[in-house]
Amino acid sequence: MPDLSFQIEGASVVPFAAAPTLAFKLQVKNAAVNETIHTIALRCQIQIEVTRRRYAPEEQERMLDLFGTPDRWSQTLRSLHWTNLNMVIPAFAGAATVADLHVPCTFDFNVAATKYFEGLTEGDIPLNIFFSGTVFYAPPDSGLQVAPISWEQEARFKLPVKIWREMMDSYYPNQVWLSLRRDVFDRLYRYKMQHGIPSWEQTLEEVLPMEATVKS
Hints:
Pfam families: DUF6084 (PF19562). This protein is α+β, with helices and mostly antiparallel strands and 216 residues long. It contains eight helices and eight strands, in the order βββαααβββαββαααα. It has two domains: 4-171, Immunoglobulin-like, CATH 2.60.40; 180-211. It has helices at 57-62, 64-67, 73-76, 112-119, 161-171, 182-194, 200-207, 210-213, and strands at 4-13, 21-30, 36-48, 80-89, 92-93, 96-104, 124-138, 145-160. The strands form two sheets. Strands 3, 4, 5, 7 and 8 form a five-stranded antiparallel beta sheet that branches. The chain has a three-stranded antiparallel beta sheet with strand order 1-2-6.
């Protein structure tokens, strides 16, 4: 029976994808090197371990929407679920193989992971990736067999914040996406039309008294 272990070797931005996507280099090792792995159907769950890094005062301020004020962080700072993914590892023989784990990313600021990534200014994002699934393999002198992979398998990785920022800057240069409730959008749209304001940026600047309400 295969003795599998998982490790993330690095991460990079997938260029020219339909949506912002990161590729994690996933190394899969099999301690039973005399077996041939035909396929691994893998389920992955990615958690952001927010307690495993320090936060600068500026970052603490930008996390107010997620965790509240820093004096409450002992109660509010908890790991965040980022995403669930499925992938298929193709056949390999020997001790190890490497495959890309593609992780689509959203720029929706209603999503906690986006708020968290955007709130960081530098350093790394501590991740823990859990694995489960099914492995199809063939021992020496035997036919195809199947074995489960339990959720006990995991791999920790520190994703540099700059990689996430480079990805979003390349897909949305000098832009962010903001999702609004329909009735709020309708009011804003009517205001824009009735005042003949040419752009959404100018509309928001009209209705948002920046100096009075927002600390820069």
